[in-house]
Amino acid sequence: MRLVSKSVQVNRDEKGRPVSVATPVTSNAKEWDRSWFNFAFVLIEEKDMNNGNDRTTLLCFDAPPTLLKEFNDLKLAEAQQNDAYFILTIILQELFRVMDNVAWTLADVFRGVEKDTLERTAHDKRVGKSINFSELHNISKHQIYLSEAFQAAQYMIGDIFRSYEDRLRKKTIQGAQNVEQKFLHISRMFKATHLRLASLEKRVANITSLAFNIVTQDDSSSMHTIALITLVFLPSTLIATVFSSSFFDFSIGNADGASIHLSSLFWVFWVIAIPVTAVVVYLWWNFSPRKKAERRSLA
């Protein structure tokens, strides 16, 4: 039995509350977060060569430190001593405690980020640059790792449970029903935390979407400012362009004094400008996003 799961190291404030995931966001492979649980257990059942009794050997690799305490404090009933699979239920319960604690820690970190983002946006709509997108990415990344591990754990428990059922078909084991119930209960606990991680994924996606919308609003405000400045200077730009064309001739300093001469072909300017303007306005009016939305609503 082998299961790889992500561990999460967090930074805490002076009150001990988790505030961020202690994972550097860098392209340097030497600084990547390598904190993983690599659980592996081998359960060996064999006959004792001396007395012919069944003997069970458990090999643990990278086991949680608390698992040793669980075994030291364990008091097995006679029926449990004759069922090696009961040991697997203890291991799975301890793995769940470790992984579930990581899931809660990650949720606690996100809760702080979520609360901070919502409070900032409620009081100041121009906070796009202060949103910690790197932290949101870190939380989302660890959530994906954990969700994958919990899914794998459910598959593993299902395989163990089917193996146990096959064993029961071959021989009767006292207290087997209790062991089966333990396997089912542990499987439900893993599934419940997996669902909680799925909910966390949606919350992260929701707050990330909100953050992007805020940044987009900031950019939109900048574009409105640029558009307003353009609108203010547009009339003077048009006038300067028209009067600087060859349709007008400004004679200054001659014997007759200053004078303005208008070309007899000035009408050509209006013949071209008015239709082109009308075509542009028509295209904008009929193919703008607002007009497309109206047509979709009527369809």
Automatic annotation (TrEMBL):
<dbReference type="GO" id="GO:0050897">
    <property type="term" value="F:cobalt ion binding"/>
</dbReference>
<dbReference type="Pfam" id="PF01544">
    <property type="entry name" value="CorA"/>
</dbReference>
<dbReference type="GO" id="GO:0015087">
    <property type="term" value="F:cobalt ion transmembrane transporter activity"/>
</dbReference>
<dbReference type="InterPro" id="IPR002523">
    <property type="entry name" value="MgTranspt_CorA/ZnTranspt_ZntB"/>
</dbReference>
<dbReference type="GO" id="GO:0015095">
    <property type="term" value="F:magnesium ion transmembrane transporter activity"/>
</dbReference>
<keyword id="KW-0812">Transmembrane</keyword>
<dbReference type="GO" id="GO:0005886">
    <property type="term" value="C:plasma membrane"/>
</dbReference>
<feature type="transmembrane region" description="Helical">
    <location>
        <begin position="226"/>
        <end position="247"/>
    </location>
</feature>
<dbReference type="GO" id="GO:0000287">
    <property type="term" value="F:magnesium ion binding"/>
</dbReference>
<protein>
    <submittedName>
        <fullName>Mg2+ transporter protein CorA-like/Zinc transport protein ZntB</fullName>
    </submittedName>
</protein>
<feature type="transmembrane region" description="Helical">
    <location>
        <begin position="267"/>
        <end position="287"/>
    </location>
</feature>
<keyword id="KW-1133">Transmembrane helix</keyword>
<keyword id="KW-0472">Membrane</keyword>
